[in-house]
From TrEMBL:
GO BP annotations, alphabetical order: release of sequestered calcium ion into cytosol by sarcoplasmic reticulum; striated muscle contraction
A GO CC term assigned to this protein in UniProt: calcium channel complex
Keywords from the UniProt entry: Repeat
MIR domain mapped to chain residues: 4-58, 64-155
SMART domains the record matches: MIR
Protein's name according to its UniProt entry: MIR domain-containing protein
Length: 226
């Protein structure tokens, strides 16, 4: 309870950008190329399950240790169950758990942007750590560990039905990034994270059911479906 305001491994939270938007996926997200993207969005999404992420320490015996600077971690999207990852073109996308290697899906938090690459020793990775990064008080910059690229964004205009032209921000990796790439953490409520897990399991169930129906249409064999 003494350290309840600090960020731990395994915490479910939101990444806030600029105070009025957060890191999330589009409401129309699919795993198809071009649709599998991550964005910054404001409004009602800041209280919805699709903006929830879990921080998982990648190299520690203490899964619930403190999240510290330079500590390798993976960022898991709760409602899809996928990890934030990087493809061969250094593009951000959500990758399945089985395909999320340490090289493609490991990130770290930095206080400032510089070229200094810090590699922590094994003894520093296997301890519970120290309370450093606080909710609502610490501004962090996210860096992809393998490439050294920074989590940033690009803005573009798009048309939305019933709204017209709107500006959207797609999260990208960049060599230098922007001045306002800093993010703040907001802890989610326990009920929210439970709801997100239910959404993920139900989505998986429906996907399997629909796939089964499609197989039944093709094969006409009920045994395949069941």
């Amino acid at each position: 309870m003494k350290y309840v305001g600090y960020v731990f491994g395994g915490d479910v939270l939101r990444f806030f950008h600029g105070g009025d938007e957060c890191l999330t996926i589009p409401s129309t997200w699919t795993d198809q190329p071009g649709q599998n993207i991550v964005i910054y969005e404001g409004g009602s999404v800041m209280s919805q399950a699709r903006s929830l992420w879990r921080l998982e320490l990648a190299r520690t015996k203490w899964a619930g240790g403190f999240i510290n600077w330079y500590h390798p971690m993976r960022i898991r999207h709760l409602t899809t169950g996928r990890y934030l990852g990087v493809n061969e073109n250094n593009e951000l996308y959500l990758v399945k758990k089985d395909d999320a290697t340490l090289a493609t899906s490991t990130f770290c938090l930095r206080q400032e942007k510089d070229d200094q690459k810090v590699v922590l020793e094994e003894k520093d990775l296997e301890v519970i750590g120290a309370p450093i990064i606080k909710y609502g008080d610490s501004t962090v910059i996210v860096q992809h560990s393998e490439s050294g690229l920074w989590l940033s964004y690009k803005s573009y205009e798009t048309k939305k039905k019933g709204v017209g032209k709107v500006e959207e921000k797609q999260a990208i990796l960049h060599e230098e990034g922007k001045m306002d790439d800093g993010l703040d953490f907001s802890r989610s409520q326990e009920e929210e994270s439970r709801t997100a897990r239910v959404i993920r399991k139900c989505s998986s169930l429906f996907t399997n059911f629909i796939t089964g129906l499609e197989t039944l249409q093709l094969n006409r064999r009920a045994s395949v479906f069941f």
